[in-house]
Amino acid sequence: MANHGPAYGLSREVQSKIDKKYDQELEERLVEWIIAQCGSGVEQPEPGRVGFQKWLKDGRLLCELINSLCGDNKPIRSIKPSTMPFKQMEQISMFLKAAENYGVVKTDMFQTVDLFESSDLAAVQRTLMSLGSLAVTKHDGNYKGDPSWFHKKSTGNRRDFSEEQLSEGKNVIGLQMGTNKGASQAGMTGYGRPRQIINNP
């Protein structure tokens, strides 16, 4: 499954564009966060794309990560080390389902093959960034690490207006529609004669 031959032509171009989206600095920050979140027992991966992919490939670390963000209410009950590809892929998909339930938007999620076959590791980084941002925003005490590593997600600021306030708003003309205050015809003179075009020989 993961043993693809070399890509040629358009496939190679597309893959190289996807590979260029991978951010080395972001990888370092994510590794630092995962180690801080999951505990000091987690080993440091080899630097680079290949090391990052091997580190997360079996899905075990990802499952531990999402469990640590959920406190006592752990979404993934059993996390077992396995060398069998379908078990590893199953653990990755369990992480994805738990991350979606945690609040990560579907458009920010990677596909299982993106990580397992290393086809789009930038998407994996995007999902982990979104998860970290969500954890910082929730501020429930389960996030470990520096809050400045991730941006806080914006939260809603709902306003409720009474019927009286809504009806008052109908009488106001917004300035973007223009205003006629101060407009008058003072100083205007009547229209003069039309322009004279004289042809002098």
Keywords for this entry:
8 helices; 201 residues; mainly alpha; single chain
What does the model show?
- Helix content is 46%, strand content 0%.
- With 201 residues, the protein is mostly helical.
- The longest helix has 18 residues, at 85-102.
In summary, what is this structure?
Helices cover 46% and strands 0% of the residues. The protein is mainly α.
**Helicity range:** 40-55%
DSSP strand (E) fraction?
A: under 5%
Nearest-integer average pLDDT = 79
Low-confidence stretches: none
The SS-based structural class is mainly alpha
Form type: elongated
Number of helices: 8
Rg (CA only): 30 Å
Q: Count the E strands.
A: 0
Topology:
Layout: H1 9-20, H2 24-38, H3 49-56, H4 60-69, H5 85-102, H6 112-116, H7 121-138, H8 163-169
Helix pairs in contact: 2-7, 4-5
